[in-house]
Amino acid sequence: LLFLEHVAAPEGSQRRMWQNVLNGPWGKLAGNCHLNRDTEKSLLDAGFTLEQITRESLRKAMPLVRPSIRGVAKVSQAN
Q1: pLDDT tens-digit profile of 37-73?
Q2: How many CB atoms lie within 10 A of CB 22?
Q3: What's the gap between Cα 46 and its chain centre?
Q4: How far apart are CA 14 and CA 10, in angstroms?
Q5: Residue-range definition of the domain harbouring residue 66
Q6: Which helix H or strand E contains 56, and what residues bound it?
Q7: Would you say the pTM of this structure is higher than 0.90?
């Protein structure tokens, strides 16, 4: 699985605070998109192994969606 996803900003940051505050209305306006989702944890919880992951900031994106991850995930052998 190749993925590129905007993710939650670091805990305790002002950006994360705003992501948490605006997550409800944002989801209603943006097709159930979540500003504060921990996609890395969601992939691991779903049984994927992260083969490669890069954390970065999407410079030209709106500040609330700049934190992002991209990478490669595979289904765990145990699944």
Answers
A1: 999 999 999 999 999 999 999 999 999 999 999 999 9
A2: 14
A3: 14
A4: 9
A5: 2-75
A6: strand 48-57
A7: no
Three-state secondary-structure class, residue 3:
strand
Query: b/e for 28-63, b at 16 or more Cβ within 10 A?
Result: eeeeeebbbbebbeebeeeebeeeeeeeeeeeeeee
Q: Indicate the length of the chain as a whole number.
A: 79
CB atoms within 10 A of CB 2: 8
Longest dimension (CA), the chain: 39
* Number of compact structural domains in the chain: 1
Query: In the block, which residue shows the tokens 């209603």?
Result: 28
- Angstrom CA distances, 63 to 28, 29, 76, stand at 19, 17, 34
